[in-house]
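re: ur question from earlier - yeah i can do the single chain one, its not a big deal. heres the input i used so u can compare w yours
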Amino acid sequence: MKVNPLTRDKLRNECDPTQFKFETTAEVEALDGVIEQERAVRSLRTGLDIDKRNYNMFVAGASGTGRTTIVLDAVRQAAKGRETPPDWVYVHNFKEKENPRAFQLPAGKGRVFAQDLDWLVNHMKEQFPKAFRDREHQEEIQEVVSGSLSREHEFFSALSKKAKDLGFLVKSTKTGLITIPLSGTKALSNQDYDALSDDDKKEIEQRRRELDPFIHDFVSRTRDIEADTQEDIKRRQLKLAKKICARPFGLLRRRYGRFNGLKDFLAAAQEHMLDNLGRFLREGAPQPPPGEVDREFIEYKVNVVVDNGSLKGAPVIVEPRPSYHNLFGKIEKKVENGVYFTDFTMVKAGSVLRANGGYLVINTNDLFAYPLVWENLKTVLRYRQTTIEDIAEHLGYLPTSGLRPEPIPINLKIVLIGPPHVYELLYRYDEDFRKLFQIKSEFDYEMVRNDDTTRQYARFVATTCRNDKLRPVTRKGVAHIVDVGSRLVESQDRVTLQFNQICNILIEADRLAAQTNDPVIHRRHIVEAVRQRDYRLALLEEKVRKEIVEGSIFIDAQGQKVGAVNGLAVYEVGDYLFGKPSRITAVTFAGKAGVINVEREARLSGHIHSKGVLILSGFLGSCFGKVRPLSVSVSLCFEQSYGMVDGDSASSTELYAVLSSLADLPVRQDIAVTGSVNQQGDVQPVGGINEKIEAWYNLCKERGLTGTQGVLIPAANVRNLMLKDEVVVAVGEGRFSIYPVSRIEEGLEVLTGVQAGSMDEKFQFGPEDSVFARAAATLDRFSADDEDE
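and the output i got, formated as tokens:
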């Protein structure tokens, strides 16, 4: 089973710059939007075409894939073909002032209606005083007053005559009527009255009591006359006010009476205005500052909470901060003389109401950062209406507004944008989500690399350079960007769709071109930009490699050892991946403990790593346990590992170490190993393959390349190779080797230089000195020792 190392052409899929027909991207047509993803776009269109309840959408995908740009383009295009939704206004409720009324008007009419109501109030403030000061009306009122006074005079004259007959003089004062006794025709003074005898005083008081009913009758008649007069004046003023109101209110009824509910509102406003004529007749009342609401006539204001007058089509609202108030609106408050107050003019719409009749786009990373929002958003979608209310009610506190605006019907489509795991969590644990969000549009993080997508990449690079005002890129530079895109997804036949990383590289390459006064971005600038990005993030990687080179971490890059294999792990620090060599050792001895995972016993093994170790027991049983009981104990350890170990990419390495120990055969230390294994001995692909190879190469370079060093990788990982130029050159010059293996047997022969061996029909291994034969002999010896005991 001779395994040949990979040739240079297998180590990366280099984009051929000659396929481009341009010198720089300045000649390339810009890309309209971003490179589209057919599956995601089709799902988007389906969701946008279905205008039914519960057909809200969740757009899943990794950040930087262009999902937001594509979504907004699709939503805005769909919005253009829809009708513009109506305006919404809040007005005073003349029956229940705590419950403002909500009305809808055609787009743009809400603002006009508010202006018309303002005009009406100003018109009445001008016309009422003017009409009431009119000479004809004043004369009419004076006539009524004169008639009233004349009647009162007649009654007073009759009373005076009756009083005189009874010997009294009646006078009218500010405090009321007083009666003065007469002596003949002369009124008695207080001194004269006091000088009278008691009998005379009794006689006067007797006559006074006879006069009292006539006085009471006079006062009652006078009050009736005054009441009738006031009623008559009020009736005449009301008649005049109605006459003044007829034309302007009639005009507004003709304009707005056809809209549901507004006819009744105008009637109530007119009635309220007629009942409060005194407000309009005050002179010298202070005017509010410009921009302030005239609170004297607040009942006649119109609060336009949604104004779609400037829209063409349906609204598209992107809410970057979906807090409770920003989404659902709020009731503002003001302080005056140390007292909070509010009214319906301070009711403010949120994004849900502004997007009514259209689309609301929210990122889930923002949405779930605010309490109460998700539950209330589902309530809005379930009941298809929104209520602007004080958030204190939801928190269980005493509400301070006292207002309960009328709910407004809602018909909108919500588009959530978020990572796939958020969709999975919501779908699994939120029953309402499964019902309300019927459309999932999933964006891939990669796409097939072919001639067409390569040309699209070139257009994307050209568009980025123009949008960000970067220098144009040469065709060799574009070709290398395509290679970078493939490396980001570890694939020779695919490229990344996470364009933010590509944009960042172009921006940094443009900086390097500026430093050398180059008018264009060359390939060398992009290579250097990538190198510098790696350098900025590679501090931990370099520290680990330094410890290995200095001998603090025991890793050999030459020689041979029994039961010790150099494995390769990958670490992720933020957005940076790097490989780390680790010595994996196995010790085998007689016993029945089976495979002991030291990491697991120390509680440093993750679930997947533990599974990989358990698979080794299956392989050993399948391979050696058919004719003998396995009386063996195996101790496996990641040496000098003090943190968690997870993943199964070291399972083949661990198996090589076990077989080396059982066969008592040394393993090459200049070869590092990665790859997982199944119970049948197949070597399976792993992730981070490029970083693992480069980590071992860098260590070997630090120690000195001998020409024999290399890496053992799964053959299935060859398609994932997009290695850096330095490694590719070293392989091409024969200073470093990469061996692809499909089976454990192949790897054993590379590592030991000895045939792996095979099992015949009698379950015996041959040749005699093969790895499997030597391991089987050791297991037979362990079993014999166990039987002897």
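The chain has a mean pLDDT of 89. not sure if urs matches, ping me
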